[in-house]
Amino acid sequence: MESAINKTGNTAATPSRRIALLLSGGVDSAVVLHLLCEQGIKPDCFYIKIGPEDTPEENWDCTSEEDLEMATALCHRYGCRLEVVDCHREYWNQVTTYTMQKVRAGFTPNPDVMCNRLIKFGAFHEKRGHEYDIIATGHYATTEIDAEGKKWLCTSPDPVKDQTDFLAQIYGWQLQKAIFPIGSLKKEEVRRIAEENRLINAKRKDSQGICFLGKINYNDYLRRYLGEREGKAIELETGKLIGKHKGHWFCTIGQRKGLGFGGGPWFVVKKDVRKNIIYLSHGYDPEDAYCSEFLIHDVNWLTCSMYADDKDRSPRNITFKIRHTADYNHATIEPKGDGTYLIKSDKPIHGVAPGQFCVIYDTEHHRCYGSGEITI
């Protein structure tokens, strides 16, 4: 079997280098542990604690206790050391603050994206990861080294599970230390390896939603920090009052489910943050719900910028995505100055919202260049 590390493009990795594995308790990182140990590589395993703020566990129904039990059992089986690294305070001070500030301003943030940058490859690195040459995770992504020796983040062969969009905001130095040993596998292959080797969590369901919330409702998370503020829900085409909502932050552009208004289906197509108004449409396809051009800023180039010359303003052909789907959109990207770029999509895109990350790929959606925040 080819080395699970070599599959990621990090051909310099050997058992003599110090490897830290972020072990979550899920099946993906469990299979990473199995593959590494199968090659004679015994990583030091770390469970990152980012659970709820000082709140009784039962109130949040968090899965962290079960996660840690799974991780402990796996490390015992493979004879690896397990350490719990408490990044709870960093998560709440950084990721939660970022999320609430964006949501309050009417944006659509992605906490999991920032968790990767700030916590899994950030706070963990400051506390323990800096002592290791390599950080292994169970992400569905690959890497490759080009002819110039540059390391690139690349997509997984499993388009549904690919997680390059969640990794596109990590810093270049973080990518240099990262490996993704299951990145070249599809989910069904990972499950098969887990079942064939009787891993304790082989049949455990994948986590859904924000990384630490478990079964916690996202609206409860928002309500805890932002409260409620009644506002109007208005039909876009007619100006008719449809009902009242409890705060624009509970609604996202393109949302259909969970709105609670009769006479639907309704879709959120627009928000007036200052007046706390959400605008709805009966159809999924009103013209206002689509956008073929939008601006992005604060672009994080993972390996290197597509524009080596600051004076170069020529459009480049790319593919991109604005949400976690298997679909990619063809477009051009063009610098507009002051760190802002114009994305011109070949076709109109539904549900483009400020605060989302536009993830940039090459035309074959193989290499991930990075991502930037949509400003519109």
What does this structure look like?
- The chain is an alpha/beta fold.
- The chain is built from nine helices and 17 strands.
- It has helices at residues 27-38, 57-60, 64-78, 88-104, 111-127, 164-167, 172-177, 187-196, 218-226; strands at residues 19-22, 44-49, 82-86, 134-136, 142-145, 151-154, 178-179, 231-235, 241-245, 267-272, 277-281, 290-301, 316-321, 329-337, 340-350, 357-361, 367-374.
- Strands 12-15-14-13-16-17 form a six-stranded antiparallel barrel.
- Helix 1 packs across helix 8 (187-196) and helix 4 (88-104) packs antiparallel against helix 5.
- It is globular and about 65 Å long.
- The chain starts with 18 loop residues before the first strand and ends with a strand.
- 41% of the residues are buried.
- The model is unreliable at 7-13 (pLDDT under 50).
Structural class call reads alpha/beta
Tell how many strands the DSSP assignment holds: 17
Report how far the terminal alpha carbons are from each other: 48 Å
Secondary-structure element sequence? EHEHHEHHEEEHHEHHEEEEEEEEEE
- Write out the strand line-up for the largest beta sheet, numbering strands in chain order: 12-15-14-13-16-17
Major pleated sheet: 6 strands, antiparallel, barrel
> Percentage of helical residues?
25-40%
Shape: globular
**How much of the sequence is in beta strands?**
25-35%
Q: Residue-averaged pLDDT, rounded?
A: 89
Radius of gyration: 22 Å
Our count of helices gives 9
**Poorly predicted ranges (pLDDT <50, ≥5 residues)?**
7-13
